[in-house]
Amino acid sequence: MAASDYGNGLVLAQLDVGEKTNEITCFQPLLDTLPDLAGTVVTSDAMHTQDDHATYLLKRDAHYIVIAKGNRKKLRKQLRSLPWERIPLQD
């Protein structure tokens, strides 16, 4: 598993995902190797749409973009209720 700087195309950190574990348990240990996440936007696939991951990133003053799939029904309902049409497209 790797943390990459997309803007510069650099791998910032890597962590071996062992045979008896998965990427979910490696998320925080991987990002713990990076000293400062403040203001950083962390993106991940749907596997990392975990409450613990979001809490961890907020405590590190990071932002995040995650995928909300059908298995997160409550989250998807909350997202659908937001006033998306009133949010200006900025970039």
Describe the protein in words.
30% of the residues lie in helices and 16% in strands. It is α+β, with helices and mostly antiparallel strands. The protein is globular, with a radius of gyration of 15 Å. It starts with a strand and ends in an 11-residue tail after the last helix.
TL;DR?
The chain is α+β, with helices and mostly antiparallel strands. It contains 3 helices and 4 strands.
Run of helices and strands: EEHEHEH
Distance from first to last alpha carbon: 29 Å
Major sheet, described briefly? 2 strands, antiparallel
Query: Given the C-alpha coordinates, what overall shape results?
Result: globular
Low-pLDDT stretches are none
| Number of E strands | 4
Report the sheet-strand fraction: 15-25%
Helical content stands at 25-40%
- Which class do the helix and strand fractions yield? alpha+beta
Widest β-sheet, arrangement of strands: 1-2
Mean pLDDT: 94
> What value does the Rg take, in angstroms?
15 Å
Q: How many helical elements?
A: 3
Give a quick set of tags describing it:
single chain, alpha+beta, two-stranded parallel sheet, 91 residues, two-stranded antiparallel sheet
SSE blueprint:
Elements: E1 2-5, E2 10-14, H1 23-32, E3 41-43, H2 51-59, E4 63-65, H3 73-80
Parallel strand pairs: 3-4
Antiparallel strand pairs: 1-2
